[in-house]
Design goal:
The chain is mainly α and 106 residues long. Helices cover 81% and strands 0% of the residues. It has one domain.
Length: 106
């Protein structure tokens, strides 16, 4: 269950990272409020996951899910580059997250 909580925390990290773009320096009230709520929920769920997962693994997976998801949103909806090099780097992050998850039981 901790892994599910951690994954949801990572999805919320995507929400606040993308939300930052739309706050325009926290000058737009609704995007700012939604972004801060995502931040609070993401960190809260990370804390819950840390009750039973190793710190280094959980933090790396949380930031990795957020990084890959945010990059995907940027590519798919915000017109950011999908160059081969960039996609390879994103794939390496996914490989690292997968490896950490698989090795966490050891």
């Amino acid at each position: 269950m901790a892994w599910v909580v951690l994954f949801v925390a990572g999805l919320l990290e995507i929400g606040w990272a993308v939300g930052l773009k739309f706050t325009e320096g926290f000058t737009r009230p609704l995007p700012s409020i939604l972004t801060v709520l995502c931040m609070i929920a993401s960190l809260g769920l990370l804390g819950v996951a840390l009750r039973s997962l190793p710190l280094g693994t959980a933090y790396a997976v949380w930031t990795g899910v957020g990084t890959v998801g945010t990059a995907a949103v940027g590519i798919l909806w915000l017109g950011e580059s999908a160059s081969v090099g960039r996609l390879i780097c994103i794939a390496l992050i996914v490989a690292g997250i997968t490896g950490l998850k698989l090795l966490a039981a050891e």
